[in-house]
Write a structure and sequence with these properties.
With 645 residues, this protein is of the alpha+beta class. The protein folds into three domains: 2-229, Aminohydrolase, N-terminal nucleophile (Ntn) domain (Glutamine Phosphoribosylpyrophosphate, subunit 1, domain 1, 4-Layer Sandwich), CATH 3.60.20.10; 237-385 and 492-568, Rossmann fold, CATH 3.40.50.620; 578-645, no CATH class. Helices cover 44% and strands 14% of the residues. The longest helix is centred in the last third of the chain and has 27 residues, at 492-518. It starts with a strand and ends with a helix.
C-alpha cells in the first residue's frame, strides 16, 4: 500500500519535473512512510514518484519505481496483487527470473511478458497503477475493478499529472483547481462526490476498472480513456449462468471461494490482523482467517469500544473472538478523543466527504495501527449480498406499489407525507416492543417520509432512500452517480444492489476505508471484494441473498457452520456516532461558527434559508437533521482547511 504521483509534458527542464514530483510525493508520506523513490526519463518529459508502505518483501528489492528486467517497462503502483505467487510461477515456467519476492516485481514482469491489458485481466487484487512503456513513450494508468484504490488525474493543454490524492496536485504551480459547483452540490445530496468527477472542475478520477493511455511520442500528452473491466458486462455474463439453486447448495459453493479469498489476503511480511465488530460480515472474515493461520499462531483481532459515542460492539466481538480462539484486544476510546478528532477530518479526507462513520473509522484505524500494519475488513457484503436496510425497505415499497394504479400511489404517498416525522417516531418508539429487533427501524419518521416521496412520484426508490439533501434544496443541479445499464433484466432489489456497487461502494465506502486507513499508514484488505465473489454473487438468484426482509442469507448460512447462532442472526448495526446530540451540545459552538455564514450558501450551492431552518429545527429537537447538517459542516470545514479565504 503506497502513494504514487507523476508528471508528463511541458513542466520545464527535466530537473523541474524531478523537483515537482518530489514535492508531490512528500505530501503522501502518510500513505508510505517507509521509503520513497523517483524515476525520470532522459528521452521524454516524464517523472514518476513513489512513497512506500512496505508489506511484501521489505528489502530494497521491493522498492519502487521498479524497472522490468528487459528495461522496457517502469511502474509505480499502489495496492496488492493477491495472486502474484501463481502469476510468478507461470512466468518462471516461461523463463522469467526474479530478484526478490514482491508482488510489484511479479506485476512489472507480467506486464512485460503479456502486455498491460492482458496482465491486468489476470490479476486478483486492489491497485492503482502507472506503467511507463520506455520504447513507445506511452504512460498507462489503471484502477482496480471495484475502485478500492484511488487515482486522480489532470490534463491541461501540454501537461498531464496524476496522484493518489488531490493534495499532491495542489502543490503544482498554475494548476486549475477551481471548485465545480455541481460536485459541491453532489456532496450535499449524496455525502460523497460521484466518479469520474472530483470537487475540482479540472481534475478527474479514474473509474473502477478504468484505464488511461497517455501518449508522449510527440512530447505533448495525448490522453485516451477506456475501461479494461466493466461491471455491466460482468453482470450480464454472470446472469447468463444463473440457475435455480437451494440456499444450502449456494452456501456449499460460496464457502471455499470465500475461504480462498481470505487466505490470499493474509500474505504479509508485517503484522496482520482483522477488524471484528461482532456483526456477521467481519466475524465471518475473522473465522476464515483464523482457520487459515499456519504455524500454530492465532489471528489478532481488534475492536474499538466507544460507549460514549452511542455504540459498543465489544461484547459480541469478544464472544466471537472467544469462540474462534483469536488473540483479541478491545481498545477503549473516549468521547473527548473522538471530539478532538473532528477538526482533523477535513485534512484526512482531502476531498469533501460527509459519511458520519468517517469519524469512528478513522479512530479505529488509528488504534489498530499501534499493533499491526495490515488489517482484514468486512466491507462489501452488503453490496454483493443485499444487506442494506434499503434493499428490504425498497423491495417492499416497489412490490406493494405494483398493486395500485399510479394515481392511487400518489394519493398514498401524499397521505404518508401528512404526519410529521416526529409524530411517526413517537408512534414507532411506543410500538417497538411489539416488533422483533430485526424489524425495528431507527428514524422511522424520515423513512416514512421517503416512502411517501417515492410513491408520490418524486424520484426512484434508490435515490429517495440514498439522498441526504433533496435536489430541490440545492442551488445548482448536483452530479448524479454513474450507474451502468446492463442488458439483463434486474429485479428492483438488484437495481439497488447495482447502484450501491457501482456508486456507493467506490465513492463512499471505499473512500472511507482508504483515507481512514492511509492516514494512519495502515493497509486494509477486503476479501468480499474479490472479483470472483462478485461474479459468483450475480450468478445466483436473488432468493439466496434476501427474502422476507432479511438480507445476506447465503452469508448467514455459511456463517452458521463457523459462528454462534446469535451472531449469524444479529441484525445489521450502524457505525455512526451520535451526531444529533453532539450538534445540540458538545459540537454546537463549532457548528454554529461554521453555519453563521456558510460559503456554500454564498456560492449558491445550497439555499441559505433552508440551511438555517434545518439548523434551528435540529437545535429545538423538532427534527433530527444530523446527516444534512453534517454534509454542510464537512463541506465548510474542507473549504476552511484547503481553500481558506
Amino acid at each position: 500500500m503506497c502513494g504514487i504521483v507523476g508528471l508528463a509534458g511541458d513542466y520545464g527542464r527535466s530537473g523541474d519535473i524531478a523537483r515537482l514530483v518530489s514535492t508531490m510525493a512528500t505530501t503522501l508520506i502518510h500513505r508510505g512512510p517507509d521509503d520513497d523513490g523517483m524515476y525520470s526519463d532522459a528521452n521524454a518529459p516524464l517523472g514518476l514518484g513513489f512513497r512506500r508502505l512496505a508489506i511484501i518483501d521489505l528489502s530494497p528489492a521491493g522498492s519502487q519505481p521498479m524497472t522490468s528486467r528487459s528495461g522496457r517497462w517502469v511502474i509505480v503502483y499502489n495496492g496488492e496483487i493477491y495472486n502474484h505467487r501463481a502469476l510468478r510461477t507461470e512466468l518462471q515456467a516461461s523463463g522469467a527470473t526474479f530478484r526478490g519476492h514482491s508482488d510489484t516485481e511479479t506485476l512489472v514482469e507480467a506486464i512485460d511478458a503479456w502486455g498491460f491489458d492482458a496482465a491486468l485481466a489476470r490479476t486478483n487484487g486492489m491497485f492503482a497503477i502507472a506503467a511507463w512503456n520506455v520504447a513507445e513513450r506511452q504512460l498507462l494508468l489503471a484502477r482496480d475493478r471495484l475502485g478500492e484504490k484511488p487515482l486522480y488525474w489532470q490534463h491541461e493543454a501540454k501537461r498531464f499529472a496524476f496522484a493518489s490524492e488531490l493534495r499532491a496536485l495542489r502543490t503544482l504551480p498554475e494548476a486549475n483547481l477551481s471548485i465545480d459547483p455541481a460536485a459541491a452540490a453532489a456532496l450535499l445530496r449524496w455525502s460523497y462526490i460521484p466518479h469520474p468527477n472530483t470537487i475540482y472542475a479540472g481534475v478527474r478520477q479514474l473509474p473502477p476498472g478504468g484505464m488511461l493511455r497517455v501518449d508522449l511520442s510527440s512530447g505533448i500528452p495525448a490522453v485516451k480513456e477506456s475501461l479494461w473491466w466493466s461491471l455491466a458486462d460482468t453482470i450480464d455474463y454472470s446472469m447468463e449462468k444463473r440457475a435455480p439453486i437451494s440456499l444450502d447448495a449456494a452456501a456449499a459453493q460460496l464457502e471455499p471461494l470465500l475461504a480462498d479469498a481470505v487466505a490470499m489476503r493474509q500474505q504479509s511480511d508485517v503484522p496482520l490482523g482483522a477488524f471484528l465488530s461482532g456483526g456477521v460480515d467481519s466475524s465471518l472474515i475473522a473465522a476464515f482467517a483464523q482457520r487459515a493461520m499456519t504455524g500454530g499462531g492465532n489471528l489478532r483481532t481488534f475492536t474499538v469500544r466507544m460507549p460514549d459515542l452511542g455504540f459498543d460492539e465489544s461484547i459480541p466481538a469478544f464472544e466471537v473472538a472467544r469462540h474462534l480462539g483469536t488473540d483479541h484486544e478491545t481498545i477503549d476510546m473516549s468521547m473527548e478523543e473522538a471530539l478532538a478528532h473532528i477538526p482533523k477530518l477535513a485534512a484526512v479526507w482531502d476531498e469533501p466527504y460527509a459519511d458520519p462513520s468517517m469519524l469512528p473509522s478513522a479512530l479505529l484505524c488509528q488504534a489498530a495501527r499501534t499493533h499491526l500494519t495490515v488489517c482484514l475488513g468486512g466491507d462489501g457484503g452488503d453490496e454483493l449480498f443485499a444487506g442494506y436496510n434499503r434493499h428490504a425497505i425498497g423491495a417492499r415499497i416497489s412490490r406493494a406499489a405494483t398493486h395500485f394504479s399510479p394515481s392511487t400511489q400518489r394519493v398514498i404517498g401524499r397521505a404518508l407525507l401528512r404526519p410529521s416525522p416526529n409524530r411517526i417516531d413517537t408512534f414507532g418508539r411506543a410500538m417497538s416492543h411489539l416488533l422483533p429487533a430485526s424489524r425495528r427501524l431507527p428514524n422511522m419518521g424520515d423513512k416514512v417520509q421517503k416512502a411517501g416521496l417515492m410513491l408520490s412520484g418524486r424520484g426512484s426508490v434508490w435515490e429517495q432512500l440514498s439522498e441526504i439533501w433533496p435536489a430541490s434544496a440545492l442551488g445548482v443541479m448536483p452530479l448524479h452517480p454513474m450507474i451502468p445499464t446492463p442488458h439483463a433484466s434486474l429485479d428492483p432489489v438488484e437495481q439497488m444492489m447495482l447502484a450501491d456497487t457501482s456508486a456507493v461502494l467506490p465513492d463512499q465506502m471505499l473512500v472511507k476505508i482508504d483515507r481512514a486507513s492511509m492516514a494512519s499508514s495502515l493497509e486494509v484488505r477486503v476479501p468480499f471484494l474479490d472479483h470472483r465473489i462478485l461474479e459468483w454473487s450475480w450468478q445466483q438468484p436473488l432468493s439466496v441473498k434476501t427474502a422476507g426482509g432479511v438480507g445476506k442469507l447465503v452469508l448467514r448460512r455459511v456463517a452458521e457452520q463457523m459462528l454462534p447462532k446469535e451472531i449469524t442472526n444479529r441484525p445489521k448495526m450502524g457505525f455512526d456516532p451520535p451526531l444529533g446530540g453532539w450538534l445540540r451540545d458538545e459540537l454546537k459552538p463549532w457548528a454554529s461558527d461554521l453555519l453563521a455564514a456558510p460559503r456554500s450558501v454564498s456560492a449558491g450551492w445550497i439555499d441559505g434559508a433552508t440551511v438555517q431552518q434545518v439548523w434551528q429545527e435540529h437545535l429545538s429537537g423538532k427534527r433530527n437533521w444530523e446527516y444534512r447538517l453534517w454534509g454542510v459542516l464537512m463541506l465548510e470545514s474542507w473549504l476552511d482547511e484547503h481553500h481558506p479565504h
